[in-house]
Amino acid sequence: MAGDERQVETQLRAAAAAVAWPPTPDLRSAVVARIARDGLVPGPAASPVPSGVARPRPAMLRLARPLAVALLALLVLAGVAAALGFRLPGLEILRTDQVPPAGAGLDLGSPVPLADALARDQPRVRIPAALPPPDTAYELGAGDRRIVTLAYRATAGQATLAGSDLALTVMAVPGSLDERLITKLVGPGGTIEPVSVDGSPGWWIAGAPHEILVLRPDGEVGVVTSALAGDTLLFARDGTLYRLESALGREATIAIAESMD
Known about the structure:
Layout: H1 3-18, H2 27-38, H3 58-84, E1 110-112, H4 114-118, E2 136-140, E3 147-153, E4 166-174, H5 179-185, E5 191-197, E6 200-206, E7 212-215, E8 221-224, E9 231-237, E10 240-246, H6 250-258
Antiparallel strand pairs: 1-2, 2-3, 3-4, 4-10, 5-6, 6-9, 7-8, 9-10
């Protein structure tokens, strides 16, 4: 027991032994007489307090008030600590963050554990070593139509992709690229620039929103639409097309792609 608690206990015991109470006057008769004099209808009579029942003593009341104030202060402090994510000695405060997944509200698919996304043979998902782990992984479709998207929430001061809280998405799609299919879908206001991604051919597409035609493993041509309207880096490796939509700029995005392994 702490020293302050022992001191309070000692004072309470001393007060209990030292305070003497006078005999209780006949309050009931006086109250009934007052009611009769004023013409009021008395309610059910209160039972007299049996003798021997402990009554609050002034000294105890004087001690109870600071104790109540101290308890209230402790509860307020506990609430502040919970809001800040701290612990107080003897108290365990649990807080659950209700932050929605990165990219929530966009048509990226259903959130899945990152380990599940990495375990798929198709598409082969690669994590950029230049970045921390993605905030959310999404999956859309199944089989050779499965698309996995890694969503990276923008940090303080970073630019965001229009209409989202994201700075970058990394999409993996089973298939490969053909430059003729790429240039076919870049409309007015858009530009396409050939780039190298760690020795592999790639394309940087900027400007107007666009769709991508991908050569699927079965030889069919599929259309990959975007839930965002950002600048895009495209490249393919080992049977998987990678599409990075980025608010980070051309050079930074290529550097991120080159760190994917």
